[in-house]
Amino acid sequence: MDWQTLAQQLFPLGHQITETDAFLSGSATVGATTVAVIGTTNHTPIGVEIALAQARAVLVTVRDFPQRPILILVDTQGQRLRHRDEMLGINSYMAHLGKCIALARQSGHRVIALVYDQALSGGFITSGLMADACYALPAATIRVMGLPAMARITKVPEERLIALAKDNPVFAPGPENYVRMGGVQAIWDGDLATSLITALADADPLDRRSALGLERGGRKMALPVSQRVMNDGDAGQA
Length: 238
Fold this sequence. Notes:
The protein is of the alpha/beta class. The chain has helices at 3-10, 48-64, 83-88, 90-106, 121-125, 147-154, 158-167, 175-181, 192-202, 209-215, 222-237, and strands at residues 15-20, 23-30, 33-40, 70-76, 111-120, 133-136, 141-143, 186-187. The protein has a domain at 3-137 and 188-206: Alpha-Beta Complex (2-enoyl-CoA Hydratase, Chain A, domain 1). The termini are far apart. InterPro entries: ClpP/crotonase-like_dom_sf (IPR029045), Malonate_gamma (IPR009648).
């Protein structure tokens, strides 16, 4: 789904979203609330320029519109793999974006992310996964790494990874598997405007992804391990 069609369904009361070099920004009306909209389109890779543009838009919202909700529209093929971006320290730019979203949440902004097309690797981690809650459309493509690339990196045969992906959502792409792992709160299929209103009302700054992954059977060890680490740390301080 292109972002213009998506915006019409999300914001039947109107929006002022503009696209500049695959970067989306603006505002829209959701019920009786105005929300800031920030995102990307055309499967754009996240390079230093677009990471800074998104970070700037978040900071402007925090400065000029205290506690205004923020909607992040996600469509990216991940971080841009260019020598220039690596030499400039793309990891620092993406970390800066993540910190800006964290600042917005800490400042009382409800932050919702929606994967409406592609969400891959670092471009997704520092945007959609930094929100209070991340949602996805049914046809969205979500993965950290494709299985052929994973096979090359891990030296595990691709056939073995394909077999593992049938039962283990960690290895499998797709929004349903990210719902099982707790990374995606739910899949929106129906009235998108109503889904957004509900998501904003339910937004919780408490990170419950590990708990959701355990409840849904997709990540069985994340919560117990993190709790053990915290308990061991408390015991050490005592």
